[in-house]
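User: Sequence recovery, please. Input:
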């Protein structure tokens, strides 16, 4: 045995109590108890006794539940002996005996001297402790306040104790005891203590269950939070404080014992929590045992729920059945979970108990049970939320409790029911999808949708419930995705929003209501708060998903980084730990994300299906057609019948009408519908009952007949032995329907009896009677139980009335739940209620998909907004317009803000603009006379919106900035400042005469002056919000009172403060938002400036500001901003209002100066883009002042920011180029002055970045060379071009970029290669040719001096720097520069033809003759000189130069042709000796081409008659004849001109031949011969044409000498041909040359003989030409040619003569006999006969 000190530990607790018991015990009644007490005292005090564990008696070695806190342990028998007197003392019922006993037990437990488990189903130790607990619980029956408190203290200590673990029935007994004390005690403190103890115990049980440990530390509850909602008003603060002290002390005592001791053995682990050896506790049926008769309905509910779940989810259970069973067994075997389950079930059952009358005092038990359930659900942990066992308990017990209590008339019960439902929705919704889908409409929407006659307190409770529901932003989204997007579920979210809208709008006018005005106001306010909360919740959710910063938080993104990735958010069930435990996955939860596309499809499917159902309920046939077309229903009769049978929401009466139609399709559907029923084994009335549940029989007898006929057939087919034929079933069916109507219709007074029923149906079975027993049983069943449709669908048939609760599909159930005919209605219909709810849950389990979606895709929010935005807009707009209440206004404005936030973030333009526009209208800024305090608040809301939602407003910025503009306008008017219009109203002056504006022409808007109130007055009647209104009346018509009211309203604007922060904070907008902001600001500014009556510059000045604020953004963003601003400045700069345009340009100048402060890197184009508005306005503006201002602005930029100008040079030169073409002299002078300064002083800056700038400079100078105002400007410009060319040749252009890119760094310098040639790069070509081309264009300048100077500079430049040009450069130079000088002339110059107009258009005022004879000739000479100078380089271009000459020769203008021929001869003279054979071939080919092209053509003369020429007096007035004659003369003149050109060609060919005849090959000579011969042949053909010669003589084109027109040309051409062939034949004799020579000589002689011989015969082939003198003159002219031919023949060799003598001899013979015009021919013939022909003939002889 232990020492005395050790014994005293236990003794100090027990001995004093036993002594008190002995003292207070009755010696007669309690003698045995006293003896036991003395024995225990003696045993504890006696140190000689053996130790407790040394006794050898049976069982003495088994450890017991008692120990003294040290090393000594008491055996089970000793523990029983010691505890026995305490247990017996508690059962005596004597106050003085019970008190010390309870106190002692409490101390034993509190000090940890009692350990083990208390469970009546356990071993001896557990039973002993269970007996001890039972004795404590019985003590509360003494009905003593002190004992009650002591019992509570002891029981709470026992439950809280770590060493004493209470399980099973013992725990339930403790709960019942505390529950009984709470109900039975007359002391309010004891009641409160009992309630607090129950709460503390429940928290302990469930906390240990969650932690799976009995040693988890537990915090004491806060009693003050539990005293609501009923007890708080009844208890004073001192009571609450005392109860809190009571609970806290017990908890601290237990913690002290636990912390000071070192638990050993089972205390250190899980206390055997997972032991499963107790088979009795593992049986689920044992957990449900109850003898309480009130619990029978719970058992029925439980069994029904299990059946429903199994029926609805067979597929889900099939795969994971084994796993589920294992999990279930572990949960049941776990004692801690078992305890929690038992407590939860007990509380649910207690909450379902209903007293006979709903007396508030008797309802306290129900209330406290509900409060406990509420607390447990609100603090539920992961195990409670996810365990299948606990979710099953909620479905089995808590749902039934909610069903029974939701219809209670006591508000506290209804409030608690709502709180419990809130906890279920918040924390258990993943596992209770179907249940929430039923209870939410039943409890919440039913009350919410009752607008006209609601219970005020219930409605307020529901509204507060919804407000709390919105705290967790995930809940509403989950509700929408799981119910509103589920085809078989009610649209909870949509109905909730619509219900809140109706409540916020109040009772409709003319509707009878039970609400008092103050109640209605309160209710409307709460509904408004709920709507705002809904929007706020949606906004919070999208912020969380997109990780958007909270606008009210300074920490922008801090904290958001901890959020899980989008698309993988776990479902949050409410407060506390939101993550689901991985050890117990919830089967009803989806994989974590919701497929947005699938949800969208489901939502669209539901909406379309609902539309089809709505159409069906109006016109069934059209409804079915719509559904088939929309692929919602198949087109087969079986599919349509299945839809009619299973779809919810269909009007049952219309289903019956459709099935009864006689059309073929309807008949097939009706047959399929009936055939879908299985009546096998069913009684006849049961079959009819099942058949008629889905529809209402139509009223038409024929329709009923068709339906019942098919029913009878189907019943007999399923039950072939029931009746002899289907006719029997058909008749009986009618009889049953008639009996049902007779028995249950209150209008029928005389009811049908059973005998009547039997008599009416005699002989219907093929003449036989149906057995009487069968008929009587049928009669009894029908009379007792009416045949009717499903109650759940009854109200669908009814039209919707003002009572919005009829929208609910559960209306019939609610009619049962809500008592209407007295208080007993509730009790009478309880069984029906459970049955209907069971059917409803079965239907939900069958139809609804079991997967619960935890929404994470923000796309879902779009569908939610589409549902709720219109109700929200109505709910906020109407009160804001009609009410002046501060709270209401604040709520409405917050609602607007939240709505705009959500719609903006989701980019829903239509919805966002609707809210923003409405809010903007409520500012009343468009009507200042109506401004009130609420409008000021709306203005503040607009400002707040701009500050917080700016990144998402997009196009809506326009409305906000419009409000800002109007506010500032009114604000200035309130200060007395004149409007901007006063500065812009001065009249426009004529162009060029208006005063020069100053560069800073910003009007001072704050200047005060007399009569400023008139401006404010004019603003009162400015029009509607959209600005479409006009001034309705003059300010003078306003009364003084109206004026004072207006001034006071304008003074209200001071409350808003400075709005400039909207613009200064534009720097915080993101890259996309700033662009939207700028677009909107530009649009608003445009509207301001375009106002015909009141133009303003407020927004324009703000544009300059925000451009300045945002200039430091990245280049990409700034470019997008400036793209918008650029178009704006261009539009305003071209405004008709000169002052506005000047203001805009000055603003643009300020921005440009600011922008040019920033350095720009090479090859960027930002400066150029920035200055483009100047360029465009310069080109488009018709105002001289604006163009002059632009020149001065640009000049100022150059002078002050030249170091920073890079790509901006391009725009500057474009501006100067535009100015060069300006029609006003001052602008041209001003611009050239600046250009001159730039080139003289800043030329290095132009070329330091890129060569394109140099090109722009050149183009600008070229433009100035064309100046019409001053010749000096053109000459200076040409000089500057020469300067630029020199710089370019020196390599100063773009040298910075070229230094790093030469092909050989060692030999390359200044952009040149080692051979002195420029690089053939595109960049270099791009630099040279604008300069050279510009100079070449000046060759057509009408001023001779300019032309001459330009050509001189052009060719000097080429001559001076051409040695550095490569061949490709030269090639481009000739083609693009030099040849362009002759483009028009060598193509279309013909002063006498139709091309004269083109020439005039091209040259303008140019003197054509001067240009042709001076400039063109000079240019051609310079081109030839240039080609000759650089022939070594450019000789490959010879052919192109030759083609230039040919093109000029081809022209009908004789001067041009002559110049081209002269240039050709000069070129050949200089370079002919250097030509190769190929080049000579090109030369002779070009000559031949020119000869062919210039052939004279008299065909027009031949085709046209000329008889009218000689009768001028008769035809002078005929315009057609005059025109024809002029054309004939022109044709003759052209032919003569060409003949002259051909003579020039012959002369040129002769010259070239004389110079280089020895260098030409035979091939070259033959080509030349061919060309000359063609000339000669064509000339001869014309000369020999007598008709042509006659017509030419008639036209007066031939002189009187009557010579052939082209005789000289013919002779010279033939002479040249003879010369070529004669020289060739003498150098080399070939058959080809020989044949050419013989043929040519024969041709010449034949032509001569023909002319001479014809005259001899007296034939007059010349018509009017006299034959004598004309013939002789012609023969004389031809004589030299004939002589040459004769001499050529005579000089032929002997061999050649022998070969051709037969050809020549007849010609010689004929010549001898002809008449000759000269003796030279005879002499030549004589010489030829003597020297050549004679000797040959002699030899032949």
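Assistant: Recovered sequence (1741 residues):
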């Amino acid at each position: 045995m232990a020492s005395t000190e050790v014994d005293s530990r236990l003794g100090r607790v027990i001995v004093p109590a036993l002594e008190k018991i002995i003292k207070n015990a009755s010696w007669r009644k309690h003698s045995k108890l006293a003896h036991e007490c003395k024995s225990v005292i003696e045993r504890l005090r006696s140190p000689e006794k053996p130790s407790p564990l040394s006794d050898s008696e049976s069982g003495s070695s088994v450890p017991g539940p008692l120990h003294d806190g040290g090393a000594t342990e008491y055996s089970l028998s000793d523990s029983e002996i010691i505890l026995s007197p305490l247990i017996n003392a508690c059962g005596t019922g004597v106050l003085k005996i019970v008190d010390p006993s309870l106190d002692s037990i409490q101390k034993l437990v509190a000090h940890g001297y009692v350990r083990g488990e208390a469970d009546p189903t356990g071993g001896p130790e557990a039973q002993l402790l269970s007996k001890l607990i039972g004795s404590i619980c019985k003590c509360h029956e003494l009905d003593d306040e002190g004992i009650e408190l002591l019992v509570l203290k002891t029981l709470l200590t026992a439950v809280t104790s770590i060493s004493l673990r209470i399980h099973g029935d013992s725990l339930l007994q403790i709960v019942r005891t505390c529950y009984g004390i709470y109900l039975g005690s007359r002391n309010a403190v004891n009641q409160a203590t009992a309630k607090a103890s129950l709460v503390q115990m429940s928290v302990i049980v469930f906390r240990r269950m969650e932690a799976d440990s009995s040693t988890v530390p537990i915090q004491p509850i806060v009693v003050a939070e539990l005293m609501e909602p009923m007890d708080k008003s009844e208890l004073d603060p001192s009571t609450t404080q005392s109860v809190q002290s009571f609970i806290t002390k017990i908890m601290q005592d237990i913690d002290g014992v636990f912390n000071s001791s070192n638990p050993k053995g089972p205390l250190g682990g899980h206390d055997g929590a997972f032991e499963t050896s107790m088979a009795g506790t593992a049986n689920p049926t044992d957990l449900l045992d109850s003898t309480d008769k009130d619990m029978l309905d719970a058992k029925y509910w439980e069994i029904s729920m299990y059946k429903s779940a199994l029926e609805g989810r067979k597929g889900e259970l099939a795969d994971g059945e084994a796993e589920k069973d294992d999990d279930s067994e572990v949960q049941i075997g776990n004692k801690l979970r078992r305890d929690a389950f038992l407590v939860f079930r007990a509380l649910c059952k207690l909450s379902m108990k209903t007293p006979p009358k709903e007396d508030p005092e008797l309802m306290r038990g129900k209330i406290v049970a509900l409060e406990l359930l509420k607390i447990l659900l609100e603090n539920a942990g992961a195990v409670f939320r996810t365990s299948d066992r606990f979710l099953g308990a909620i479905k089995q017990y808590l749902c039934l409790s909610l069903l029974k209590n939701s219809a209670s008339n006591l508000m506290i019960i209804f409030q608690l029911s709502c709180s419990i439902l809130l906890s279920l929705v918040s924390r258990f919704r993943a596992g209770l999808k179907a249940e929430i889908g039923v209870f939410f409409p039943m409890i919440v929407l039913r009350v919410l949708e009752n607008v006209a006659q609601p219970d005020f307190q219930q409605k307020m409770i529901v509204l507060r419930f919804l407000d709390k529901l919105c705290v967790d932003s995930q809940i509403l989204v989950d509700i929408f995705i799981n119910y509103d997007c589920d085809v078989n579920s009610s649209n909870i979210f949509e109905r909730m929003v619509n219900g809140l809208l109706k409540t916020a709008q109040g009772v409709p006018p003319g509707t009878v209501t039970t609400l008092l005005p103050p109640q209605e106001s309160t209710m409307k306010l709460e509904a408004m708060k709920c709507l705002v909360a809904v929007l706020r919740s949606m906004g919070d959710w999208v912020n969380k998903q997109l990780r958007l910063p909270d606008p009210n938080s300074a920490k922008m993104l801090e904290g958001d980084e901890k959020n899980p990735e989008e698309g993988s958010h776990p479902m949050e069930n409410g407060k506390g730990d939101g993550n689901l435990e991985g050890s117990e996955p919830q089967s009803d939860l989806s994989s974590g994300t919701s497929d947005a596309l699938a949800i969208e499809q489901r939502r669209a499917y539901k909406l379309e299906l609902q539309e089809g159902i709505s159409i069906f309920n109006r016109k069934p046939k059209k409804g079915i057609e719509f559904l088939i077309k929309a692929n919602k229903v198949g087109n087969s009769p079986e599919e349509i019948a299945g839809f009619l049978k299973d779809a919810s929401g269909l009007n049952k009466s219309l289903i019956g009408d459709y099935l009864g139609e006689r059309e073929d399709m309807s008949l097939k559907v009706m047959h399929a519908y009936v055939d879908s029923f299985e009546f096998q084994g069913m009684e006849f009335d049961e079959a009819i009952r099942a058949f008629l549940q889905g529809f209402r029989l139509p009223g038409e007898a024929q329709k009923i007949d068709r339906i019942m006929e098919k029913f009878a057939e189907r019943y007999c087919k399923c039950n072939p032995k029931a009746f002899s034929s289907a006719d029997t079933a058909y008749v009986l069916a009618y009889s049953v329907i008639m009996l049902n109507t007779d028995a249950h219709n209150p209008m029928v007074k005389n009811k049908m009896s059973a005998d009547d029923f039997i008599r009416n149906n005699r002989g219907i079975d093929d003449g036989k009677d149906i057995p009487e027993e069968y008929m009587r049983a049928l009669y009894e069943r029908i009379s007792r139980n009416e045949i009717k449709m499903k109650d759940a669908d009854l109200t669908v048939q009814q039209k919707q009335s003002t009572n919005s609760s009829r929208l609910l599909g559960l209306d019939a159930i609610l009619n049962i739940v809500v008592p209407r005919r007295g208080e007993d209605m509730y009790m009478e219909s309880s069984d029906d209620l459970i049955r209907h709810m069971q059917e409803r849950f079965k239907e939900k389990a069958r139809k609804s998909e079991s997967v619960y979606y935890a929404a994470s895709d923000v796309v879902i929010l779009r569908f939610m907004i589409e549902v709720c935005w219109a109700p929200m807009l109505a709910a906020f707009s109407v009160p804001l317009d009609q009410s002046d209440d501060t709270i209401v206004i604040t709520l409405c404005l917050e609602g607007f803000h939240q709505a705009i936030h959500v719609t903006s973030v989701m980019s829903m333009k239509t919805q966002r603009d609707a809210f923003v526009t409405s809010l903007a209208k409520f500012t009343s800024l468009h009507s200042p006379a109506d401004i009130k305090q609420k409008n000021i608040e709306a203005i503040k809301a607009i400002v707040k919106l701009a500050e917080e939602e700016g990144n998402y407003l997009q196009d809506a910025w326009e409305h906000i900035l419009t409000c800002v503009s109007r506010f500032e306008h009114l604000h200035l008017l309130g200060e007395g400042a004149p409007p901007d219009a006063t500065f812009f109203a001065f009249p426009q002056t004529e162009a060029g005469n208006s005063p020069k504006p100053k560069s800073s022409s910003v009007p001072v808007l704050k200047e005060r002056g007399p009569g400023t109130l008139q401006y404010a007055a004019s603003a009162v009647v400015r029009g509607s919000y959209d600005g479409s209104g006009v001034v309705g009346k003059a300010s003078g018509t306003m009364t003084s009172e109206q004026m004072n009211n207006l001034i006071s309203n304008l003074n209200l604007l001071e409350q808003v403060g400075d709005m400039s922060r909207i613009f200064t904070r534009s720097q915080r907008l993101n890259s996309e938002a700033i662009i939207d902001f700028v677009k909107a600001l530009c649009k608003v500014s445009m509207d301001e400036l375009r106002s015909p009556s009141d133009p303003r510059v407020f927004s324009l000045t703000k544009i300059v500001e925000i451009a300045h604020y945002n200039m430091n953004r990245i280049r990409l963003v700034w470019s997008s901003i400036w793209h918008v601003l650029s178009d704006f400045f261009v539009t305003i700069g071209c405004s008709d209002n000169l002052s506005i345009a000047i203001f805009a340009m000055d603003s643009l100048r300020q921005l440009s100066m600011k922008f040019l402060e920033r350095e720009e890197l090479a090859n960027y184009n930002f400066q150029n883009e920035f200055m483009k508005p100047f360029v465009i306005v310069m080109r488009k503006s018709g105002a001289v002042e604006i163009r002059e201002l632009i020149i001065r602005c640009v000049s100022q930029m150059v002078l002050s920011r030249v170091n920073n100008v890079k790509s901006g040079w391009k725009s500057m030169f474009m501006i100067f180029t535009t100015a060069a073409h300006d029609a006003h002299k001052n602008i041209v002078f001003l611009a050239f002055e600046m250009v001159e300064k730039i080139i003289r002083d800043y030329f290095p800056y132009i070329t330091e970045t890129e060569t394109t700038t140099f090109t722009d400079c050149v183009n600008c100078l070229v433009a100035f060379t064309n100046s019409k105002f001053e010749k000096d400007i053109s000459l200076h410009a040409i000089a500057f071009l020469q300067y630029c060319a020199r710089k370019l040749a020196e390599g100063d252009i773009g040298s910075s970029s070229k230094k790093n890119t030469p092909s050989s760094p060692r030999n390359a310098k200044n952009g040149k290669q080692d051979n002195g040639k420029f690089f053939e790069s595109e960049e270099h070509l791009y630099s040279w040719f604008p300069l050279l081309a510009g100079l070449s264009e000046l060759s057509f300048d009408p001023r001779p001096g300019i032309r001459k100077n330009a050509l001189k500079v052009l060719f000097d430049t080429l001559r001076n720097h051409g040695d550095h040009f490569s061949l490709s450069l030269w090639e481009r130079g000739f083609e693009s520069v030099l040849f362009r000088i002759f483009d028009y002339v060598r193509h279309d110059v013909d002063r006498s033809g139709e091309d004269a107009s083109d020439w005039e258009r091209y040259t303008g005022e140019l003197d054509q003759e001067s240009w042709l004879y001076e400039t063109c000739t000079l240019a051609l000479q310079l081109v030839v000189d240039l080609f000759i100078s650089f022939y070594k380089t450019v000789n490959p271009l010879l052919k192109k130069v030759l083609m230039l000459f040919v093109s000029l020769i081809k022209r009908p203008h004789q001067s041009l042709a002559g110049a081209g021929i002269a240039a050709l001869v000069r070129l050949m003279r200089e370079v002919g000796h250097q030509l190769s054979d190929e080049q000579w071939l090109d030369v002779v080919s070009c000559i031949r081409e020119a000869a062919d092209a210039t052939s004279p053509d008299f065909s027009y003369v031949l085709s046209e008659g000329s008889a009218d020429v000689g009768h001028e007096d008769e035809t002078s007035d005929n315009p057609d004849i005059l025109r024809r004659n002029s054309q004939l003369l022109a044709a003759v003149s052209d032919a003569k001109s060409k003949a002259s050109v051909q003579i020039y060609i012959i002369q040129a060919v002769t010259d070239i031949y004389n110079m280089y005849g020895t260098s030409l090959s035979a091939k070259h000579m033959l080509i030349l011969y061919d060309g000359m011969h063609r000339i000669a042949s064509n000339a001869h053909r014309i000369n020999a044409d007598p008709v042509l010669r006659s017509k030419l003589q008639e036209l007066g084109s031939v002189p009187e000498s009557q010579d052939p027109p082209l005789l000289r040309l013919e002779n010279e051409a033939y002479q040249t041909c003879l010369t070529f062939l004669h020289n060739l034949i003498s150098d080399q004799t070939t058959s080809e040359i020989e044949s050419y020579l013989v043929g040519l000589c024969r041709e010449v002689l034949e032509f001569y003989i023909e002319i001479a011989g014809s005259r001899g015969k007296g034939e007059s082939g010349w018509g009017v030409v006299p034959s004598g003198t004309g013939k002789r003159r012609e023969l004389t002219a031809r004589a030299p040619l004939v002589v040459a031919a004769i001499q050529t023949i005579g000089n032929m060799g002997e061999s050649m003569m022998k070969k051709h003598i037969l050809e020549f001899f007849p010609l010689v013979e004929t010549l001898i006999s002809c008449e000759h015009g000269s003796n030279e021919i005879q002499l030549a013939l004589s010489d030829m006969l003597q020297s050549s022909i004679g000797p040959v003939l002699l030899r032949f002889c």
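The longest helix spans residues 1519-1556.
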